[in-house]
TrEMBL record, chain A:
GO terms for molecular function: clathrin adaptor activity. The chain crosses the membrane at residues 12-35. It is found in: Cytoplasmic vesicle, Clathrin-coated vesicle membrane; Golgi apparatus. Residues 29-164 form the AP complex mu/sigma subunit domain. InterPro entries: AP1_sigma, AP_complex_ssu, AP_mu_sigma_su, Longin-like_dom_sf. It is a peripheral membrane protein. Adaptor protein complex 1 (AP-1) is a heterotetramer composed of two large adaptins (gamma-type subunit and beta-type subunit), a medium adaptin (mu-type subunit) and a small adaptin (sigma-type subunit). This is Adaptor AP-1 19 kDa protein.
TrEMBL record, chain B:
Pfam families: Adaptin_N. It comes from the Eukaryota. InterPro entries: Adaptor_Complx_Large_Subunit, ARM-like, ARM-type_fold, Clathrin/coatomer_adapt-like_N. This is AP-2 complex subunit. Keywords: Membrane, Protein transport, Transport. Signal peptide: none annotated. It is found in: Endomembrane system. Its main location: membrane. Coiled coil: none annotated. GO terms for biological process: intracellular protein transport; vesicle-mediated transport. It comes from Musa troglodytarum.
């Protein structure tokens, strides 16, 4: 019998089955990317080690893959042996193939709801001019590529506390400068 | 809640956005980078506030896609700043720009450690977050003990403990030796008694990682997991803030069921019964609702429950329920559910009896092979490949080859490969096989000659 693709057959055959039996030790969010419809990057957070060049490649490839998907398709794409869950204005989260996709989809929604609450109906401009805030908020939602806090109320309270710490520090600096300039 | 402080940053961002083209943008960015480079050279004269401003600009430029090959030192040095605003920026920008093996990180270890063991809770949180996000092996070796102490300390507030849990998880992934199994036998069990659901969310992630590596040590945690599922399933003592569209912490439920999939069996009949009751309730009680988010959360739980049922190799009745559910899912309009239905049906193939029941849905799966969504097409192909046996090989291979004619480029290689493997494996006789082989060869050749 003629064998078409001798070695690759076996590889593909076994990879198919073993894919589901591999231990899930490394199962977590690898990165979060937020890209606009035009492919502009608004936020990136990497929980797995990706070097600078690799990051650019990832962004380019995923933009190409996701931005071309029509509106009525599912929120999941398969890419390089990973899965990428994406939603609303292209929050993209990369996970392992065995992770729970809908759980991740709702993490995206959770993040968006918190941004909404914080900015008062968040729009892209908010994320552009206050990108640093988006990072602070993301750091209260995810650590080590895992969900940290599912209570919007708690996250809102934490961010407000951080904001007020910054305000207080500014006032202190301001009042010290005043004192100094008055003294001169 | 508009622009906060840092006018210089806002002005810079506006400038960049007002650039008419890429060239102009590059000029503006280069000008700024040059400016920052000069200011950084004159470090003595740079206040923490100014450094903070420049470091944010650097991050913005980096996000635009430009190479930022300097200034990492300054970002890391801000970690040592005495005041919160600057320290916060140092920690966050460092975790965005640097990867775990960056040499500058090593220099920050002492400062980070001081923040972790110090009395300032906000500094602790900053440090735990950064280490949890980008900590590497060295951080693991230096800090794991201190992080562990915070997690287990009853005087630490939930805010710190939940960050400590995930930070420890990261350090464990980098260096599994940091968790001494003997000590953790009881500790993990105690941690699962946690009342604060924010902390429990993080603790459960840690637990999944620990149990995936070493089930024997954590048998006593099994009944606790089932109790957690029971409590959440009944919405018992769940604060409103942890209820997501009416569903009590779906993420904890999913993670707990994930953890249970690492236990090979459930010995105790009571625990087993209790768990099956929970699972049965989920299988039968998950309705499709209008609200998308509630639907997603409920189905996230359902699909994880399905995976757990498959793992437990439940009674035949429960299995048929699962397949029936999945059979429904692969035909719904909602693409996400269709995708997940196909994916989970493929998982079900690993269970010996399920294959026959799954084959009844062959027609619908073949329809999915031609779905407008490539993600769904891929799942359908995998499923057809997996469910192929002597009885349906001929049909399936013929379908695959027929589809190969019109399939898009991205699918063709895999289609051809899978069809070839199946044809060879199940060839009823030589002539059928030769025909399929030649047919396929013809298609591939015409592709090649057209390119």
């Amino acid at each position: 019998m003629v064998r078409l693709y001798p070695n690759r057959c076996q590889l593909v055959g076994s990879a198919f089955i073993s894919g589901f039996l591999i231990s899930l030790v490394r199962s977590f969010i690898h990165f979060v990317i937020l890209i606009s419809r035009q492919g502009k990057v608004r936020l990136t957070k990497w929980y797995s080690p990706y070097q600078q060049k690799e990051r650019s490649t990832v962004i380019r490839e995923l933009s190409g893959l996701i931005l071309t998907r029509g509106p009525k398709l599912c929120n999941f794409v398969e890419w390089k042996g990973f899965k990428v869950v994406y939603a609303s204005l292209y929050f993209c989260i990369c996970i392992d193939p065995d992770d729970n996709e809908l759980e991740i989809l709702e993490i995206i929604h959770h993040f968006v709801e918190i941004l909404d609450r914080y900015f008062g109906s968040v729009c892209e401009l908010d994320l552009i001019f206050n990108f640093h805030k988006a990072y602070y908020i993301l750091d209260e939602i995810l650590i080590a590529g895992e969900l940290q806090e599912s209570s919007k109320k708690t996250v809102a309270r934490l961010i407000a506390a951080q904001d007020s710490l910054v305000e207080t520090a500014k006032e202190e600096t301001g009042s010290i400068s005043n004192m100094i300039s008055q003294a001169m | 809640m508009a622009l906060t402080g840092m006018r210089g940053l806002s002005v810079f961002i506006s400038d960049v956005r007002n650039c008419q083209n890429k060239e102009q943008e590059r000029l503006r960015v280069d000008k700024e980078l040059g400016n920052i480079r000069t200011r950084f050279k004159n470090e003595k004269a740079l206040t923490h506030y100014e450094k903070k401003k420049y470091v944010w600009k650097m991050l913005y430029i980096y996000m635009l896609g430009y190479d930022v090959d300097f200034g990492h030192m300054e970002a890391v040095s801000l970690i040592s700043a005495p005041k919160y605003p600057e320290k916060q920026v140092g920690y966050i920008v460092t975790s965005c720009l640097l990867t775990e093996n960056h040499e500058f990180l090593r220099m920050a270890i002492n400062t980070v450690r001081n923040d972790i063991i110090g009395r300032n809770e906000t500094f602790q949180c900053l440090a735990l977050t950064m280490v949890g996000n980008i900590g590497g092996k060295e951080f693991s070796e230096s800090l794991a003990t201190d992080v562990q102490k915070l997690l287990l300390s009853s005087s630490c507030r939930p805010l710190v403990r939940k960050k400590a849990a995930l930070c420890l998880l990261r350090l464990y992934r980098k260096n599994p030796d940091v968790i001494n199994i003997d000590g953790w036998y009881d500790r993990m069990s105690q941690l699962l008694d946690e009342r604060d659901l924010g902390v429990l969310t993080s603790v459960m992630s840690l637990f999944v990682a620990l149990v995936s590596n070493n089930v024997e040590a954590y048998w006593n945690c099994l009944p606790k997991c089932v109790k957690i599922l029971e409590r959440l399933g009944r919405n018992q003592d769940v604060p409103q803030e942890y209820t997501y569209y009416g569903i009590p912490s779906p993420w904890i439920q999913v993670k707990t069921m994930r953890a249970l999939q690492y236990f090979p069996t459930i010995e105790d009949p009571n625990t087993r019964r209790a768990l099956f009751e929970v699972l049965q309730h989920i299988l039968m009680g998950t309705d499709v609702v209008k609200n998308v988010n509630k639907n997603n959360a409920a189905h996230a739980i359902l699909f994880e429950a399905l995976a757990l049922v498959v793992h437990l190799d439940a009674e035949k009745e429960m299995m048929s329920q699962c397949v029936a559910l999945l059979g429904k899912f692969i035909a719904v309009r909602e693409p996400n559910i269709r995708y997940l239905g196909l994916e989970n049906m493929t998982r079900l193939l690993l269970v010996s009896d399920a294959q026959d029941i799954i084959k009844r849905h062959q027609a619908q799966i073949i329809i999915s092979l031609k779905d407008p969504d490539i993600s769904i097409r891929r799942r359908a192909l995998d499923l057809l490949y997996g469910m192929c046996d002597v009885t349906n090989a001929k049909d399936i291979v013929e379908e695959l080859l027929q589809y190969l004619n019109t399939a898009d480029l991205a699918m063709r290689e895999e289609l051809a490969l899978k069809a070839a493997i199946l044809a060879e494996k199940f060839a009823p006789d030589l002539s059928w096989y030769s025909y399929q082989f030649l047919h396929q060869f013809h298609i591939i050749c015409s592709d090649i000659f057209q390119m």
